[in-house]
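Structure first, sequence second, as always.
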């Protein structure tokens, strides 16, 4: 589909952009603090999302990340998102339906720390944005498919990260890593110099120009160089992203023994 439309009204031309998760992140009503594109893109990469994946998210919040997850898994995948707050869950469900995502996103009002995710042996990836993510980690183990998967936990405080990492290790997760994304936007500015100050004799010209009553007659402004540097109002710390891998689940030892016995000692006719 075309990503934009042009509308002309009188002397004014308007370009209407097609909705994207990035645009929705900038325009959505803030019911909670949200994740922005810098963290969202890194999360989708580390969770190894692709069309057809089954992703669990908790909590839904304002739905910023949920829209990006839905695009990543495509129409053949599924995003199962849970929200503890009833009003926020209802508002998010209405927005998903309004944006035509009701077939991809299933939204529930649920406390995953006490009740689990309501899903067993299906998830390829799990994302946690909770005050106490370590309480939901044991429920995540049973929610993963037999092939295992990736888990991500977003926490603003390092103390939360420490407790979550300890629980992840206790529950058998591997490759536990924590990242902090700091965005630094660079800004360019063009600098101008008064023409008499340029060249080998610039010091002499400067002193002569200081004695001159009419500086405008001594030269003109010229574009000298372009200066670049980080913006002073750049966004700082947003939170810590902890990633871990759940290895593929092994068949229980009793089942393996039974299968081996059947192969070695087949039932006689």
């Amino acid at each position: 589909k075309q990503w934009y439309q042009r509308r002309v009204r009188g002397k004014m031309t308007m370009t209407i952009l097609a909705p994207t998760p990035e645009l929705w992140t900038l325009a959505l009503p803030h019911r909670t603090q949200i994740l922005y594109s810098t963290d969202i893109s890194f999360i989708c990469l580390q969770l190894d999302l692709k069309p057809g994946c089954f992703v669990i998210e908790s909590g839904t919040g304002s739905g910023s990340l949920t829209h990006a997850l839905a695009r990543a898994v495509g129409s053949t995948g599924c995003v199962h998102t849970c929200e503890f707050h009833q009003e926020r869950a209802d508002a998010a469900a209405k927005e998903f339906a309004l944006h035509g995502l009701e077939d991809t996103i299933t939204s529930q009002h649920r406390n995953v720390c006490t009740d689990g995710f309501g899903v067993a042996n299906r998830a390829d990836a799990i994302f946690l944005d909770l005050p106490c993510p370590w309480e939901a980690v044991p429920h995540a183990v049973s929610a993963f498919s037999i092939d295992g998967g990736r888990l991500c936990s977003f926490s603003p405080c390092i103390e939360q990260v420490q407790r979550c990492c300890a629980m992840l290790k206790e529950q058998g997760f591997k490759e536990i890593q924590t990242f902090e994304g700091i965005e630094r936007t660079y800004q360019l500015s063009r600098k101008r110099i008064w023409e008499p100050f340029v060249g080998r004799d610039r010091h002499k010209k400067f002193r002569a120009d200081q004695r001159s009553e009419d500086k405008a007659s001594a030269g003109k402004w010229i574009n000298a160089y372009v200066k670049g540097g980080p913006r002073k109002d750049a966004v700082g710390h947003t939170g810590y992203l902890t990633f871990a891998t759940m290895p593929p689940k092994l068949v229980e030892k009793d089942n393996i023994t039974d299968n081996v016995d059947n192969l070695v000692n087949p039932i006689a006719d």
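Margin note: Residues 118 and 143 are 8 Å apart (CA to CA).
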